[in-house]
Every structure is written in C-alpha cells, then in structure tokens.
Write a structure and sequence with these properties.
This protein is mainly beta. It contains two helices and 24 strands. A four-stranded antiparallel sheet has the order 1-24-23-22, with no helix packed on it. The protein starts with 51 loop residues before the first strand and ends with a strand. The relative contact order is 0.21.
Length: 408
C-alpha cells in the first residue's frame, strides 16, 4: 500500500488565465477526500508568482476532447460529437478528416482520445477511443479503441480497424474513461470507466468485466507482454478498482503510468497506476454519495487497496471542514518537461472541469510536495492538457478554445 493521500490547501496565485467548471468529465459530479489534509504545502514548494500569458490559438472548436501533435507540430483535435480536425501548428486553420466509425454520442459518449503510434513517422498510424453501441442491441454501449492510417493528402483515415472493446457493453451514457497513452515499450494503456450507474460500479472489482479498469494492449489489440497475472481476469487488464479515469500520462523519469480519476461527491484523485494494483472503488473512497454526507464504501482505506498520490476535498483545493464535499473533476493531464519557467519543470499539470482551474502539482519523485490552482479567473472547463514540441503547455477547453501558455 502506498503512503496516505496528500492534500494541500490552495496558495494565493497570480492573475492567471483559465479554469474549468461544471460537473465531472462531461457529466460527473463533485469530488474530494475524507481524511484531514496537512496544514499546507511543503517547505520545498515554489509557487507561481509571475503572470502566465495565455494565447488563444483557435476558438469555435466543436466539443473538443483531445489533441495530439504530429511530428511537424500540426495538431489532431477530436470533437466528441464526431469531428476530427487537423490544425496547422499555429492553430490558424484546419482541415476536416473523414473516415470515422459510427459513434454513440449520448451523454458523455462520442469521439474521445487520440494518440499517435510511436512509429507514426513511418507507419502513419493513429489510435483513438470512442463509444459505440452494441451491434445487436442499440440500448447497450461501451468504450472501444480503433487504429487507422492518417492520409494527410486525402484528409482521411484509411484501413480503420477496431482493435479493442470494453466488455460487456451496458445501458449507460456515462463514465467511458477513455484516455490512451503509449508506454516506453510501444504498448498502449486504455482507461475504462465504471459506467456510472449504481448497479454497475461494483463491477470495478470484478476482474471478469471491463468496468473501472485500465488495460494495456499491443498495437493490434492483444494483451501486452509483461502485464500482471490476475487470476480469472479479462485479457489485457493492468489495474482495477477505478471509477472514471479521464486523465493519463507517463512519468518522464520512471515511465510509470499516472492517471487522474473522477470521484463521486468528493474523492477526485491522482494515482500512480502500477501493475496489478487495486485502487479500491467502490469498496473504499474519499467521496460521498451525491447530495448527502454519506461516505461511499467501507471507509477511506483497506489492506490491499491503493491510496491516491493526491486527493481534492473541495472545488478550490482548500481543506474540507465538514458537510457536503465538492469537486475539481479532473480531466487531461501532463508532466511538464520544459525549461521555462524552471520551477514548473517536473510538475504534473491536471485540467479541471468542475474546478475552474489548471492545477500544478510540484513533485519530488512520486511525492506531491505542494499544489496550486492556476488560471481560475477564466471560468472555462479544461478538457485536455498537453506539452507541445516547443516545450509549452497547450490546453483544450469545453467552450471550444485551443490555448497556449507562456511564462509563469
């Protein structure tokens, strides 16, 4: 079991620009922890005191969900309701890409994450996650992953194949999870939500089902070599006991998978998502049942179940002092490996949907030594966070903006 979760109060930050508001992941609710946090950030924490410049590279994006940089710095940007656009490196113009499969776009569903093959320069392959209905029963749906080749001359996806499907499909319009991350061996992590309904969430502990899991697969969709041996588990499972992980990235030094996860009312998390680990949902939780002060599960900890690296108690990051909790609703995330500003280097940045912010978590190895809430005056839901080839952070917002950050 890892060390107990760390939560830190909000430090005063500068007039920065950006935020994220409303329910979790396009439909989730509030979230944070159930144990008293430390009194403040650690002594090594360096807050951001200089203004951050936010440049709006593009506006009017339709329901943006994810972006991926091509080797020439152009960007593929997904739109949840069924658009895939190729933007120029400066965001000034775009072309529509055709060839998408049929999508289920109810609730939180649709076209979701996109990732480039590590060998994209030679094979032109892209991978994307989406929600699809069952071919025999349109009331059932689930997360799927497809790969295709990107033809930038024809502006089309060609040779499309669905390589992975969450199973079984269920009758729900929420909690698809759906982040894609390639590891350093060229295998693909896929995050899978618990499917939201009360009658489904318990299956996050059932290794025979795809609810609330992280999978690790080959580029052909098979279980990746080196996966943990979990007795009776579906092929390809990496970890379990998740609620709705909508952020995922690799640690730049260790290569480990880190994820962010929506709690219920209280309990939004960042997790170091190691092989074979049980992250507890819904047996343990740092959250409450919606509209109440009732703890979800048996408590906040149990032997054999992991604790988060960081948990939020309130929408602002301040300590919970009783009553109903609230949520930041974490989404896309990225470690910053750029050099400017220097105190950001190595930090983990997490977008917030309900929380009207971009959160910076300053790291010491796998430990969070402090965190701050940035860009909270823009009142925008931050859907995705990426580092560009120029070493700067790029953000997508739910109100249709592509933003670039400079300074701090």
């Amino acid at each position: 079991m890892r060390t107990p979760a760390h939560t830190f109060r909000k430090l005063p930050s500068v007039v920065l620009l950006l935020a994220a508001l409303s329910a979790c992941g396009g439909g989730d609710g509030p979230a944070t922890p159930n144990t008293p946090p430390p009194s403040g950030n650690g002594p090594g924490f360096v807050p951001t005191t200089n203004a951050v410049t936010v440049t709006e590279l593009a506006t009017g994006l339709p329901n943006p969900w994810s972006l991926a940089f091509l080797p020439d710095a152009r960007m593929l940007i997904t739109g949840r309701l069924g658009t895939l656009r190729l933007y120029t490196a400066d965001g000034s113009s775009f072309s529509n890409i055709t060839g998408l499969p049929a999508l289920y776009t109810g609730g939180q569903g649709g076209l979701l994450d996109v990732a480039l093959d590590p060998a994209f320069a030679t094979n032109r392959r892209v991978y994307f996650s989406f929600s699809e209905t069952d071919s025999g029963n349109a009331s059932l749906n689930g997360t799927a992953v497809a790969r295709a080749e990107l033809d930038t001359t024809a502006l089309a996806l060609v040779n499309l194949q669905v390589i992975y499907r969450q199973s079984p499909k269920v009758a729900s319009s929420g909690h698809f999870g759906s982040r894609l991350v390639f590891d350093n061996s060229g295998h693909l992590f896929v995050t899978l939500g618990d499917r939201q309904n009360n009658d489904q969430r318990g299956f996050a502990q059932d290794l025979t089902r795809g609810n609330g899991k992280v999978a690790r697969i080959t580029t052909a969709g098979a279980a990746a070599p080196g996966n943990p041996v979990l007795a009776g588990a579906q092929a390809g499972l990496w970890s379990y006991g998740h609620r709705n992980p909508q952020g995922a990235t690799l640690h730049p030094t260790t290569g480990e998978l880190w994820t962010s996860e929506h709690g219920p009312q209280g309990g939004d998390e960042v997790n170091r998502t190691l092989a074979g680990r049980n992250f507890g949902w819904p047996v343990i939780s740092h959250g409450q049942e919606y509209g109440t002060t009732t703890q979800v599960g048996e408590g906040t900890a149990k032997a054999g179940m992991e604790q988060p690296v960081s948990v939020w108690e309130t929408i602002t990051g301040s300590a919970w002092t009783g009553g109903q909790k609230s949520s930041i609703a974490p989404s896309g995330m990225a470690f910053f490996t750029g050099s400017q500003p220097t105190h950001w280097t190595g930090s983990l940045f997490v977008g917030a949907l309900a929380g009207q912010a971009l959160w910076r978590l300053q790291m010491d190895g796998a430990t969070v030594v402090g965190r701050e809430r940035l860009l909270a005056n823009r009142n925008e839901r931050i859907r995705d966070v990426r580092q560009g080839p120029d070493g700067r952070l790029y953000l997508l917002t739910d109100n249709g903006k592509l933003l670039r950050l400079t300074g701090g």
